[in-house]
Design goal:
The structure is a single chain. This protein is an all-alpha fold and 196 residues long. It is built from 6 helices and no strands.
Length: 196
Amino acid sequence: MDHIPSKNLELAKKLNVAAWIVTAVVLTLVGMMRRVKIELPEGMDMSFLPPFHATLNAWAAVALLVALYFIKRKNVIAHQRAIYMAVGLSVLFLLSYVAYHFTTPETLFGDLNHDGVLSAEELAEAGSSRVIYLIILLSHIFLAAISLPFILFTFIRAYTGQIEKHRKMARWVYPMWLYVTITGPIAYLMLMPYYA
């Protein structure tokens, strides 16, 4: 059982409230980004961002695997550094992803002519690969939304010295986070042929 100083418990309570606020803001923005579009200045193009997002996610996955490697070897400092890297990459991804989707029309899997509508011919052409893509994408989105507050809580437990609680949460939060970071680049690679 962890013996946590009361000041750390107070800090944890404040950080937990902040984690819920961050989660609410992020989920609200993600919910709005496909309905609200902000017009970019003439000549400004955000098409470079999807491969950047995939790269950030891929590097976050690598950082998570490195963090696991180090904690299995009881190297807590290296583990912490790798987790900080994964968190930083994930935050950068999230900011960039939201900015992209607020400013750029959605790309649809199978939309060969880039008109934003899937014709019967395009659906037939996409075939079962569209179903596979949607399963990967929807599981990615669902687990990203569900895991966000718990990633933050797991981080807070470690940051405030609640190591046993951190370990218990990390056992089930870590695989979800890793899945999200891996499926993001896979979804991008599958969608890549349909970007205008």
